[in-house]
Amino acid sequence: MKATFLVVGKTTDGRIAELVEVYMRRIAHYMPFELQVVPELKNAKSMSEAQQKELEGVQILQRAGGQTEVILLDEHGQEMRSTDFAQYMQKKMSAGRDLMFVVGGPYGFSEAVYKRANGKLSLSKMTFSHQMIRLLFTEQLYRALTILKGEPYHHE
Questions:
Q1: Residue ranges of the chain whose pLDDT lies below 70
Q2: Confidence (pTM)
Q3: Burial letters for 63-76: b for 16+ Cβ neighbours within 10 Å, e otherwise?
Q4: Are 50 and 108 in contact, with CB atoms under 8 Å apart?
Q5: Strands 3-8 vs 33-38: parallel, antiparallel or unpaired
Q6: Residue 147: how many CB atoms within 10 A of its CB?
Q7: For position 40, what pLDDT does the model report?
Q8: Strands (DSSP E) along 28-128, which ranges?
Q9: What 8-state DSSP symbol labels residue 125?
Q10: Beta strands in the chain (DSSP E)
Q11: Among 24, 25, 79, 155, which residue is least crowded by beta carbons within 10 Å?
Q12: Superfamily for 3-149?
């Protein structure tokens, strides 16, 4: 089983990108993990929100294999504590299917992506930039994996 973190657009803040890279290297000690970037749309300013979501959605769906479990990071998704997320990950890893966690573009996901998704997670009731979510998610995934291994990173 491997996990993929699919994001729309590149990180423009080098400091955030560097920290995401730190957590990605840490996660790789526990499971195969990769970051994939859907390129930003060209001429997006001349498109409607719906058009942008549709075109981004096509690119997201092209990367989600038929057997891959797709989990959207979405403001309307399920919220959970870090320990609950660790248990969630344990169940997913035990199932053996590849996982893909997806951060959409600035306007969210197309209807087709929502239909393909196997679940939705929310990291907070607050709204964060798409760049910050990358850091928050990779840190929480690392935290969950250390919880499962009984390592001292997480304190409760």
A1: none
A2: 0.94
A3: ebeeebbbbbbbee
A4: no
A5: parallel
A6: 20
A7: 84
A8: 33-38, 69-78, 99-103, 119-121
A9: S
A10: 3-8, 33-38, 69-78, 99-103, 119-121
A11: 155
A12: SPOUT methyltransferase, trefoil knot domain (3.40.1280.10)
